[in-house]
Amino acid sequence: MKNEGIQPTTTMEKIVSLAKRRGFIFANSEIYGGLNSCWDYGPLGVELKNNVKRAWWKRVVQQRDDMVGLDAGILMHPRVWEASGHVEGFTDPLVDCKSCRQRFRADHITGDKCPECGGELTEPRKFNLMFRTHLGPVEEEAAVVYLRPETAQGIFVNFLNILNSTRKKIPFGVAQIGKAFRNEITPGNFTFRTREFEQMEIEYFVQPGTDEELFEHWVKERFNWYISLGINPERLRIREHDQDELAHYAKKCCDIEYLFPMGWSELEGIANRTDFDLRRHSESSGVQMDYFHQETGERFFPYVIEPSAGADRATLCFLLDAYHEEPDKDEIRVVLRFHPEIAPIKVAVLPLSRKEPLVAMAQEIRSELGRHWLTAYDDAKSIGRRYRRQDEIGTPYCVTVDFESLEDQAVTIRDRDSMEQIRVPVAEMVTVLREKLGAPGF
Ligand code: GAP
To answer: Rounded to two decimals, what is the model's pTM?
Structure first.
């Protein structure tokens, strides 16, 4: 087994602490004591997460002929959630302790006593995970709407609009990135499970009969995407769901799992949703949502292959997998070895001194590099300390401007991973960095 003996890169505590210290992720509403399991992305975190979403979008929409994008609303007609089965079925069984009043998921408890105080538990009750709110100023039942618990339904209800406006032929897919909300009973493990999160979902419409082959295609494609962006394949594995684990709509489901600090856990799910959703929305809305195959003259409901990833969970995975600690003289060097495409900042400009005319040259270099990549400029403390600061946030290259640069019009480029340094003429700096980074700038 290729995964045998492999360990998580680090503990969640270390990542939470680094994320706060360096501005990746902060506790939400922290000055008020925080809001349980809600997080905010700081200056570096928003760049990191945007890079993850951009890399996904590029790969699954822009580099394929058979995919288009969509950005549907978070609020949808309440009947969407009746048709999808979420009003009835999107529930977890809950029990309450009659003594200490704590609440637990019934399926997380063994025995019939409270795991905290040994008190008596209530009978399990169903708890719907959808957040409810009201549309309009009067809180009447008719105006109840839900915050979407998945982005998928926005794609299904727009199936005909997309088909008619793009004239796509199956197999084709629709991708969407957006917020989803679930009133999770057991959120936790940092941004792994939260109540507000972002999904990156694909609904890929296929002819029934071709679904099994295309399902396998998407499992491989999605697995390879993580590896192409630097995730260690030994910390990834595919787990097929048992029959009794399958969601009400699924014929088959495979999870891509990552070895998080708390153990192997779902990073992304790929499901064969059959024709469940289009059929249900047809029946419920009265609008015929089947597909007319022009070559064969057949009408049918396409099957749907759904690779569904979490943008926050993927970002956490990239953050964790990049984390390395290595001995450096008497200290420990902490390095985030992000793939260049994922790294929040691509290049840092470090002038050796704060004296003129060095500063003017360094700032000119920074503005030249800033036209191509997100850059940082750091002139505080020793050069060694500054390299460490960039290592810790995963900046792939540092460009150092020293007094010799004024004479020879050359700079030093220092590699984050090997720590090797090369001297490069300023005139060639962008070309050399472009070759090394091999990544889009913005
Ligand atoms: N449309 C199918 C669907 O929503 P899911 O397995 O419930 O399937 C898909 O969710 C992905 O969304 C998960 O693999 C995970 O990455 C992310 N996700 C789900 N619930 C989440 C939560 N509470 N917090 C963070 N990410 C979540």
So the answer is: 0.94
